[in-house]
Design goal:
The complex is a heterodimer of chains A (325) and B (245).
Chain A: H1 2-11, E1 18-20, E2 27-37, E3 40-47, E4 50-57, H2 60-75, E5 85-93, E6 98-106, E7 111-112, H3 113-120, H4 123-141, E8 144-145, E9 154-157, E10 162-165, E11 172-173, H5 199-215, H6 225-234, H7 237-241, H8 243-250, H9 257-324
Chain B: E1 5-13, H1 23-32, E2 35-43, H2 50-62, E3 67-71, H3 75-103, H4 114-130, E4 132-140, H5 149-163, E5 170-177, E6 185-191, H6 212-244
Parallel strand pairs in B: 1-2, 1-4, 2-3, 4-5
Antiparallel strand pairs in B: 5-6
Helix pairs in contact in B: 1-2, 1-6, 3-4, 3-5
Classes of the chains: A alpha+beta (325), B alpha/beta (245).
Pfam families (chain B): VWA (PF00092), VWA_2 (PF13519)
Domain VWFA (chain B): 1-91
Protein name (chain B): Ca-activated chloride channel family protein
């Protein structure tokens, strides 16, 4: 109960409120709250380096874990797997008279995954998922599993839309137990496997994100989870096209994100080429009609020459007959 | 090297005790024996009464554990979260004690600069992943809990799923109270898999009294019994190893 009041207070810091770090003495001017997670609240803030995102929490353990993960990510060169970490510090909260931990990240401006799909259309789902699978492949190669993969933790950024991973709170070292999860995207909940951090755990969540994106809602598990999911896939026009890939991901058949990426890509190409072959077969039908028409024309041409030849022969015979007379 | 064992009691109840010793005192006793007591209060639609809430918080506080009051539908998520949180809390306590020994009287993790804190946290994470864990689950089956028991069972399967994904070993035992003849009754002996529960749980009958205190007291003795039994086994193993050499 105590925690709740503290959290509520942290969620309602007024715009313009300034917090100063105890150790590094950097100051941050709160602008507005960006979101609330299980372990704290994230604010958009202004710092000497420009706009940043600040995550505050009364749970120092959780914050420290997250910072550890973000630090590991910053070591991955060249690829942005999560927001980059700028500062970690404590702040003495005069209201609760307690130390509140916070860390500062790069501010990523973007649109959340589901509303982007709603606005721009379902054709974007597979494109963003393919991007996501490439990112996951890199993450897995570094020895991590994202864990709490869900639309809320995905952001679509930029003019050339690109997916970004947010909230690394659930990110777990491979081989350990998943730290955080959300039931709908958790294969354990659906009775489809363990909660051990391995790439196939994330890939199950990816399949569930696609299902979520097409139905735009979550649903509860009934008796047989697998059958229910397969039925849902079969009942949706978009999902049906990627049925094979989705079922394999749900069954945990992919050991690497790149395998799922390849097969999803193959399904996309297959789909577009099948529409092409349809038009091609249309063309060929047209051509065969033309040919038959031409053939008929040709046959009538033969008939014509035959008639002319016969007519000329007849005339010649008549001429000879006349000469003989 | 043998990793340490974390011992926890997870009490699942929906209200106040009304029989026997004060459960808060029993929780304090557990803590003295190095056993953490966590409490989950399960609600229906109704809210829990003030005294029940106070007791739930009191038991967890005295038992050095975590308490949480939830609706039955959120039970699965909560059970695993509470167990995890309590593990981290205990391990952090251990690490803090070590820090005090190294750095002097009143230093805890929060007093370290954030950079150092991260390193300590990695140690805590590592321990939490690899430590052996013993959880004795104590389920209140009196009166109003009866309708919630299927949900409790599901939540316990889920707990087993979460914890068995860890590298370290787990041992679970399930007790219900009140028992048929005694204050507490064993329904599942120490096992690494809670799935074995499916055959025993539906047999339960719900009674009237809620002897939370006596149930906790008896649960404690069960940890000890197991301890001695296990040390017997492990000494046997040692003997075998030696003779084989």
């Amino acid at each position: 109960m105590m925690n709740n009041t503290l959290k509520n207070h942290l969620c309602k810091l007024p715009s313009g409120y300034i917090i100063v770090g105890k150790w590094h003495k950097h100051s941050y001017k709160m602008i507005k709250p960006l979101g609330k997670g299980a372990n704290g609240v994230v604010y958009l803030a202004e710092s000497s380096k420009g706009l940043v995102a600040v995550k505050l929490s009364d749970n120092s353990t959780a914050i420290t874990s997250e910072v550890n993960v973000l630090k590991h990510f910053s070591k991955v060169q060249g690829v942005a797997l999560g927001p980059s970490l700028l500062d970690v510090d404590d702040w003495f909260d005069p209201y609760s008279k307690k130390v509140v931990c916070f860390y500062v990240m790069e501010y990523i401006k973007g649109e959340d995954f589901l509303s982007f799909i709603q606005k721009r259309g379902k054709e974007w789902i597979v494109i963003l998922i393919l991007q996501l699978l490439s990112d996951l492949e890199k993450l897995h190669q570094e020895g991590w599993v994202f864990g709490d993969l869900k639309p809320e933790n995905l952001l679509v950024v930029g003019q050339a839309p690109k997916i970004r991973l947010l909230d690394v709170g659930g990110t777990t070292l491979k081989g350990r137990a998943i730290k955080e999860f959300t039931e709908f995207y958790d294969r354990g909940y659906w009775g489809m496997g363990s909660r051990k951090a391995e790439p196939s755990y994330d890939l199950f969540s990816v399949a569930m994100i696609m299902i979520n994106a097409c139905y735009l809602k979550r649903f509860e598990k009934k008796e047989n989870g697998r059958e229910q999911l397969i039925k849902m896939i079969g009942a949706d026009e978009t999902l049906r096209k990627y049925r094979k890939v989705l079922v394999r991901a749900i069954d945990g058949k992919y050991e690497h994100a790149r395998e799922m990426h390849q097969e999803l890509m193959a399904a996309v190409i297959d789909e577009s080429s099948s529409t092409k072959t349809k038009s091609r077969s249309n063309q060929s039908r047209k051509r065969s009609v033309q040919k038959r028409y031409q053939k008929r024309k040709k046959r009538s041409g033969v008939l014509e020459t035959a008639l002319i030849v016969m007519f000329l022969l007849f005339m010649y015979v008549m001429y000879l007959y006349g000469e003989l007379l | 090297m043998r990793k340490g064992t974390l011992k926890q009691i997870l009490l699942i109840t929906d209200g106040c005790s009304n029989h026997g010793e004060d459960p808060v005192a029993m929780a304090a006793l557990a803590r003295e024996q190095g056993i953490t007591v966590n409490v989950i209060g399960v609600l229906d639609q109704d809210t829990i009464d003030e005294s029940g809430l106070r007791e739930i918080e009191g038991i967890a506080m005295a038992g050095g554990g975590v308490s949480q009051v939830v609706y039955a539908t959120q039970l699965s998520q909560t059970v695993q979260m509470v167990t995890r949180k309590a593990m981290t809390q205990t391990l952090q306590g251990v690490v803090n004690r070590e820090l005090k020994q190294i750095l002097g009287s009143d230093v805890t993790m929060e007093d370290l600069p954030p950079e150092k804190r991260g390193e300590v946290m990695e140690v805590v994470d590592e321990l939490g992943e690899t430590a052996e864990l013993e959880v004795l689950i104590l389920v209140d089956t009196s009166g109003s809990m009866k309708t919630k028991l299927p949900t409790v069972k599901e939540a316990l399967f889920d707990l087993s799923l979460s914890l068995n994904a860890r590298i370290g070993d787990n041992h679970f035992a399930v007790f219900v109270f009140p028992g048929k003849r005694r204050d507490v009754e064993k329904v599942l002996d120490w096992t690494p898999k809670l799935e074995a529960l499916s055959t025993v749980f539906p047999k339960l009958t719900s009674g009237g009294l809620t002897p939370t205190g006596p149930a906790l007291r008896e649960a404690l003795t069960y940890f000890k019994k197991k301890r001695s039994l296990r040390s017997l086994i492990s000494s046997d193993e040692q003997y075998f190893e030696e003779s084989s050499m």
